[in-house]
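Researcher: Re-running this chain for the archive, since the previous output was lost when a drive failed. Same request as before.
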Amino acid sequence: MGDTMTFTAETARAALEGILTALESEEAAQKINEAKANASNDMLKVMQYVFPLIVQVEMDVIKKFGFTDNREGIIQFTQMIVALEKEDDVIADLHTQIRAHYLPPVNIATDVSL
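Model: Regenerated structure tokens:
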């Protein structure tokens, strides 16, 4: 991305919403669901088959926001999102929704008894 100052919280929200819309499109959803079915509960297979599909959809969307559609672009985008989600609950929620497409929910016990 040429000018990182133009990537605001509003832009981040728009990009994340665009990614979610693309992930939920009929074509992408079908491919992702097939990959998930083939991967079953094997996390290594999920990372091998499902994750690349998600990343490809993300790269297709983020290039519309000035990022390159390659490894460096997705890394830069993700770093910016992670930084922004600490201050913006909407961004954090949207990013969590995207991650839910390839990561199972993690339950963390909040009540620790000693």
